[in-house]
Amino acid sequence: QLQLVESGGGLVPSGGSLRLSCAASGSIFSVDSMGWYRQAPGKQRELVAAISSGSTNYADSVKGRFTISRDNAKNTVTLQMNSLKPEDTAVYYCNYKHALGPFGDYDYWGQGTQVTVSS
Q1: Interval 23-64: pLDDT, tens
Q2: How far is it, in rounded angstroms, from Cα 52 to Cα 33?
Q3: CB-based contact 32:98 (threshold 8 Å)
Q4: Pairing mode, strands 3-7 and 76-81
Q5: How much is the pLDDT for 44?
Q6: Region 67-91: what's the mean pLDDT?
Q7: From the CB of residue 103, how many other CB atoms can be counted at a distance below 10 Å?
Q8: CB 3.0-4.6 Å disulfide test: which of 21, 22, 61, 104 passes with 94?
Q9: How far is Cα 29 from Cα 39, in angstroms, rounded to an integer?
Q10: Please, is 45 exposed, middle or buried when counting C-beta atoms within 10 Å of its C-beta (0-12, 13-18, 19+)?
Q11: Percent of the chain's residues with pLDDT above 90
């Protein structure tokens, strides 16, 4: 059974930085995507950033401020968040997206970590 454990959330003032980390255990494949989603109160969960085979994808709202990286040897994915804004406040979830070919993808989720940015 694949498990994702996040760490690194917390409270930070506007303009500050945080680093989120996610450690995966189980059957991990480097070709599969790993990433971060977030969900603010009353809003849908949204993609923040993802990385697969060296290719990255960012939400427009975080481009230039957040950086995602992955260590395939350690099965970890990290999100460096700089210049944080109050609108970045949300629960952040680590995601592992296992590709099933013609059957689509299967998503694994971490438990979530709270990020709060004060104004």
Answers
A1: 999 988 888 999 999 999 999 999 999 999 889 999 999 999
A2: 4
A3: yes
A4: unpaired
A5: 97
A6: 97
A7: 7
A8: 22
A9: 26
A10: middle
A11: 87
Which residues are bridge partners to 22 per DSSP? 6, 77
The amino acid sitting at 97 is: K
Residue 101: both structure tokens together = 């070919």
Q: How far apart are CA 9 and CA 112, in angstroms?
A: 9
Report how far residue 88's alpha carbon sits from residue 59's, in angstroms, rounded to the nearest whole number.
12
**Which residue, among 28, 35, 33, has the nearest Cα to 3 in the 3D structure?**
28
Query: Rounded CA gap, 118 and 17, in Å?
Result: 12
The encoded tokens of residue 38 equal: 């977030």
Using CA atoms of 85, 87, 89, 93 in order, give the dihedral in degrees to the nearest 10: -110
